[in-house]
Amino acid sequence: MAKETTICPKEAMCSVLFVCWGNICRSPTAEAIFKHLLKERGVSESWRVDSAGTGEWNIGELPDPRALHTLRVHGLDSDHKARVLVDEDFEQFEHIVVFDDKNIKDTLEMGPTRLSRDDLILLGTFDSVHDSNIIEDPYYSVNNEDFETTYLICERACKSFLKSITL
């Protein structure tokens, strides 16, 4: 069951941050998809959307070439530069969305002491097709199929998540 989320009225400024491990596969993919969905709805101006990682090793890098390829196959792109989750993110973003149990653990460890599991959203809970709430990291995949699977799960979940938090 998806976490109950705060409704974002059309006239309000809303924000979402996607957080994964290295910020070069899942989180920038979901970020690009979410931005595209907002653009389709004509509400991009009233949203702040970003992504970050819990690890520092990819800072400043573009998304993984396989993630970029998959986005382009679907008519999307990303010029996002990997960054690490910082203290200010917990104050600036209304919704913090993660992909797996390690992301939950790491984000809780990096966040303020008042942050709890209930403050995080597991994106996979919004996909009724996928048989798990976890969206696996495709980084160690030997082919693009896992990146395509990740894209499709993120797309379905982002659509459902957006629907659940907007009027």
What distinguishing features does this structure have?
167 residues, alpha/beta, 5 helices
Question: Could you walk me through the main structural features you see in this protein, from its secondary elements to its overall organization?
Answer:
The protein is an alpha/beta fold and 167 residues long. The protein has a single domain, classed as Rossmann fold (3-Layer(aba) Sandwich). The chain is built from 5 helices and 4 strands, in the order βαβααβαβα. Helix 1 (26-41) crosses helix 5. It is globular. It starts with 13 loop residues before the first strand and ends with a helix.
CATH secondary-structure class: Alpha Beta
CATH superfamily: Response regulator
> Compute the gyration radius: what is it?
15 Å
The averaged pLDDT comes out at: 93
Shape: globular
Oligomerization: single chain
Number of strands: 4
- Give the end-to-end Cα distance, rounded to a whole number of Å: 20 Å
Strand content: 5-15%
The biggest beta sheet is recorded as: 4 strands, parallel
**Helical residue percent?**
25-40%
Please state the second-level CATH architecture.
Answer: 3-Layer(aba) Sandwich
The tally of structural domains comes to 1
Order of helices and strands: EHEHHEHEH
Major sheet: order of its strands? 2-1-3-4
Q: Number of helical segments? A: 5
